[in-house]
């Protein structure tokens, strides 16, 4: 696949440290992606233009990470028919609750799927689940990933049991 399937939009360059797990998952599973910084408040025309043209560029999902007022995901969702996944970022004294509330309180007709605070890894996995409906190779990789998680938990269970039996 040559075209990018996932667009990652961060409200600030300081969001990169939180969004890196998202990027790492997309890289791990060879999901083509692009990353930009665009603010709903400081660069609204850039953010709107990005979302308005995302479909034309071949994107299938947008992941938006932002902190504080965090209107980025909603602004993007307001001008695209693509699924938008929001990642509220802990960047204020409110520890991300302000961002979470801004993202989950979307008005009727403008849905945004919202992850946990700093939940960038889950945003990538959720995007992968959406893509798995269309691309069988991602479904297979996702099933393998989940099987591996199960194996890791079983190994941890055995380790705990051994530790407690001493």
From TrEMBL:
GO molecular function terms listed in the Swiss-Prot or TrEMBL record: 5-(carboxyamino)imidazole ribonucleotide mutase activity
Location of the PurE domain: 4-153
Top-level lineage group: Bacteria
Pfam families, per the entry: AIRC
Pathways per UniProt: Purine metabolism; IMP biosynthesis via de novo pathway; 5-amino-1-(5-phospho-D-ribosyl)imidazole-4-carboxylate from 5-amino-1-(5-phospho-D-ribosyl)imidazole (N5-CAIR route): step 2/2
EC nos: 5.4.99.18
Binding site for substrate: 12, 15, 42
GO biological process: 'de novo' IMP biosynthetic process
Membrane-traversing stretches: none
Catalysis performed (reactions): 5-carboxyamino-1-(5-phospho-D-ribosyl)imidazole + H(+) = 5-amino-1-(5-phospho-D-ribosyl)imidazole-4-carboxylate
SMART domains for this protein: AIRC
Keywords recorded for this protein, A-Z: Isomerase, Purine biosynthesis
Keyword Nucleotidyltransferase: no
Function: Catalyzes the conversion of N5-carboxyaminoimidazole ribonucleotide (N5-CAIR) to 4-carboxy-5-aminoimidazole ribonucleotide (CAIR).
Family: Belongs to the AIR carboxylase family. Class I subfamily.
Protein's name according to its UniProt entry: N5-carboxyaminoimidazole ribonucleotide mutase
Origin species: Desulfonispora thiosulfatigenes DSM 11270
């Amino acid at each position: 696949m040559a075209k990018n399937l996932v667009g990652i939009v961060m409200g600030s360059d300081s969001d990169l440290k939180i969004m890196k797990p998202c990027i790492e998952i997309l890289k791990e599973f060879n999901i083509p992606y692009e990353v930009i910084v665009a603010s709903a408040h400081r660069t609204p025309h850039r953010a709107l233009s990005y979302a308005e043209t995302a479909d034309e560029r071949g994107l299938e999902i947008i992941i938006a990470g932002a902190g504080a007022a965090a209107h980025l995901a909603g602004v993007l969702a307001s001008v695209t028919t693509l699924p938008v996944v929001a990642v509220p970022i802990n960047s204020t004294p409110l520890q991300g609750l302000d961002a979470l509330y801004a993202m989950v309180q979307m008005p009727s007709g403008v849905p945004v799927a919202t992850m946990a605070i700093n939940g960038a890894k889950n945003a990538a996995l959720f995007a992968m689940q959406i893509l798995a409906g269309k691309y069988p190779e991602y479904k297979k990789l996702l099933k393998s990933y989940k099987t591996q998680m199960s194996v890791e938990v079983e190994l941890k269970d055995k380790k705990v049991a051994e530790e407690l039996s001493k």
